[in-house]
Every structure is written in C-alpha cells, then in structure tokens.
Amino acid sequence: MMRNPFKYFKTSPEIIRLTVMMYVRFPLSLRNVEDLLHERGIDITHETVRFWWNRFGPLFAKSIRKRRVENRFYSNWAWHLDEVFVRINGELHYLWRAVDHEGEVLEAYVTKRRDRKAALKFLRKAMKRYGRPEAIVTDKLPSYKAAMREIGNKDCQETGRWLNNRAENSHQPLRRREKVMSRFRSMRSLQKFAAFQSSIHNHFNLERHFYRREEFKENRSAALAEWRQLAA
DNA sequence: CGATCCTATCGGAAGACACT
DNA sequence: AGTGTCTTCCGATAGGATCG
C-alpha cells in the first residue's frame, strides 16, 4: 500500500505540482522559480524548489510513463538513437537517448564512456521497458553496431546523419537548461533531470502533428488536467 | 498531551562565467 | 591575475504535522 506522498508537506499539492513543472519544463533556475512564485504571493526558498523537484520528479515521471506505456502513446516501429556530450565538473559524460519516430522520448541514460558496453546497457534498458523496435536508426558510432550484434538485432540498423534528426532535435531543451545551470554538477542529478524532463516533454508535447488552434487548446487543457492529477 | 517523524530552511561551499 | 554575480550542492536543525 502506497502512502500519501504529500504527507507532512506544509504546502498544497497544487502548488508543489506547479513549482515542479515550472522548474523542469522551462529553462529557469531555482531562484527564478522562487521569484515567479513570490510574484503570486507564494513564499518559499529556492532550496525548497530543489527539494520538491528531487522528491516528486521521479514520482511524476513514473506515473506519466506508466500511463503512456499502458495506452501505447509511443511507437516501436523505428527508434532513433543518439548520444550527446555533457560536461560535469569538467569531465566528459554522455547522455544517450532513444526517441521513437513520432518524437516521443523513450529513454535517457547517462554514462561515463561511449563504448560498446555503454551502448549495450542503454539498449537493454530501453528494450526492457518498451520491447523490440522494428528498425533502429543511429549515427555512425561503431559502438551501436557492436552492441546490436551482441543483442542479435543487427539487421534492423540503419545509419545516416540526416535520418537521425529526430533524436538530435530532442537535445535542445537539455542544452538550454545546461546553460542556465552553468553545467550540471553530478551524474546523479543529470540522470534524474534528463529522465524527468523526457517524461514531461512527452506529456506536454502537443505538436507532434499539426493541429488547428482549437484542437491544440483542447489537447493542452487535457494535458494540464492530467498533470494536476499526478500522485493524487 | 508528549513522542516521533520529516519538511523547509539556513549559511556556507564550490564552480562557471563575464568583466576589468 | 582578481572581483562580482550567478548557479547548484550539502550538512545541520527548528519547528510543524502526525501518531499513540
């Protein structure tokens, strides 16, 4: 039996949800969020914002993901894989991403190296959660080929930079955040952030197809209404 | 009521960046 | 080089929420 996640909290779930959404969805610093809330008469410190997103981020992400997996808002027809450099305290790390062909971010994973072992771990993690895709699109990094040989689905790999824009586009929000934060401090917080941000991106990503304004507004309201139910 | 949990906060640390 | 201003991170703890 799961206990009430808001137990002992002195602030209402509504405000906590709003705060967490502001911080993760938009490129704002902890203090930016503090000041924005202050403008609305809500008095908390930036440390509280940090505390809340660390506590509730994984929780919200989990329930968004669960819902999407159950309703299959993703497609495993083709996955696009990509990795991007992220500097943590001066050291290079790699953030791997799997994106489906509609732009849904499936998995985000941080590693220290960019070798076969890392690619393998990442692929296994994604497939455990979503099953096997029919096609996998990657860039030319040899680690993918090696990893896929080991898994046994080498045949469905396609390579090509232009094919892989889908995955590369999804790194943009992270880059913006990175700039605001002046780099991430620890692997743990990057992993947490990337995973959570992917979930939120999927949840609020309303322009996967071209909507008319009315449809867009309906969809946005629906997304917000669902958000307000999280962990309720 | 007192005991116990644990949120929310505080002050300081350390790093990145821009500027002089 | 130093200074100022921004960022997140961390250990300690006051005091509010909850339970028996």
Tell me about this structure.
GO terms for molecular function: DNA binding. This protein has 232 residues and is of the alpha/beta class. The chain is 53% helix and 15% strand. Strand 1 and strand 2 form a beta hairpin. Helix 1 packs across helix 3, helix 2 (30-39) packs across helix 3 (46-71) and helix 4 (116-130) crosses helix 5. It is globular, with a radius of gyration of 19 Å. The mean pLDDT is 89. The structure holds a DNA duplex (20 and 20 nucleotides).
- The secondary-structure class comes to alpha/beta
Give the low-confidence spans. Answer: none
Tell me the Rg in angstroms.
Answer: 19 Å
CATH C-level class of the largest domain is Alpha Beta
Q: Sketch the topology as an H/E string, one letter per element.
A: HHHEEEHEHEHHHH
Give the count of structural domains. Answer: 2
Mean pLDDT: 89
Helix content: 40-55%
The first-to-last residue Cα distance is 14 Å
Architecture (CATH level 2) name of the largest domain = 2-Layer Sandwich
Percent range for β-strand residues: 15-25%
Describe the global form. globular
User: Can you say what the CATH homologous superfamily of the largest domain is?
Assistant: Ribonuclease H-like superfamily/Ribonuclease H
Major sheet details: 5 strands, mixed
Domain DDE: 76-204
InterPro entries: DDE_dom, IS_Transposase, RNaseH-like_sf, RNaseH_sf, Transpos_IS6
GO molecular function: DNA binding
Organism: Maricaulis maris (strain MCS10) (Caulobacter maris)
What would the keywords be for this entry?
232 residues, alpha/beta, Nucleotidyltransferase, domain 5, 2 domains, 9 helices, 53% helix, DNA-binding
